[in-house]
Amino acid sequence: MPSYRFCRPDDIPYLVRAVNECYDVHFPGAAPMTLERFRTEMKVLDLWPSNCLIASSDDGPIAVLIGTKRVDEVNVLRIGLRPDHCRQGHGAHLLTSLSQKLAVLGPGRLITEVPRALAGVGEFFAATAYRKEVAFTDFVRPVAPVEPVPEALVIPITIDELIDHQMLDIPDEVAWPRRRESLLNGKDDLEGFAIATPERIEAFLLHQAADATTDIVALGARSSERQQLFLSLLLRYLAGRTKQPLRLPRLADGEVSVTLLTGLGFEAGTVYDRYSATATPA
User: Fold this and answer.
1) Max Cα–Cα distance, the chain, nearest Å
2) How confident is the model at residue 86 (pLDDT cuts 50, 70, 90)?
3) Strand 73-81 to strand 60-67: parallel, antiparallel, or no bridges (unpaired)?
4) Cα–Cα distance between 96 and 104 in angstroms, integer?
5) Which domain holds residue 56?
6) Is 281 a member of any domain?
7) Domain membership flag for residue 129
8) What are the pLDDT digits (tens) for 243-282?
9) Among 134, 186, 141, 140, CA closest to 159
């Protein structure tokens, strides 16, 4: 019979193994989980080993759940089964165990953000009392020539400076990796640009290097008749400085004008659905 348990910090190496054998195995070509990457996610995404569960048999992990913890929500970042143990109820058992724990200790809201194209994943969460809330879409711009932006129009900026100028206004509905907490946790790895007038900062863009793309993790402008112009200038400026495709990951409806993005050569890619549930006691 398999055993199920919540994890501790000293289980991190085993959790890394479990992610590779039970989750990443379903994504051929995915970069393997490593200790360094796991610890980075602990810092940036507030991944907590105590909200991670493993199901094991005599020959190692057969199922894993990786969870976070913030004040109001827990995000199920990953849940996966070893291919030879799928459809045996282990995944539902892990979700139920986490829900019962959070019903006692809190927070009481659980979410997950999953690619819509993964067959059966949405149905799995829906069958375990999760309900669909919102959708997110990746927008990607391939490497291509762009009309240059004069250097004098753009200045470097940090997250701390954006906060000082009351510009880091991140909507609550954005995806977990792009929440304000995630940006602050990972600020040392972010680079920022802004457009400023003599009176104030008008628009900003924060980005970071990913495996094969340059990811735009935050983009915003003050409300004015030139808002779209400022955002367009920043996107063009970044496109002219990088040799990688640009990606705006998990964009929520209404965050940035789709017309603006498509006009700059961005194309819609992977769609994600956020599901949520309320923690339920045993």
Assistant:
1) 69
2) confident
3) antiparallel
4) 13
5) 3-107
6) no
7) no
8) 999 999 999 998 999 999 999 999 999 999 999 999 999 8
9) 186
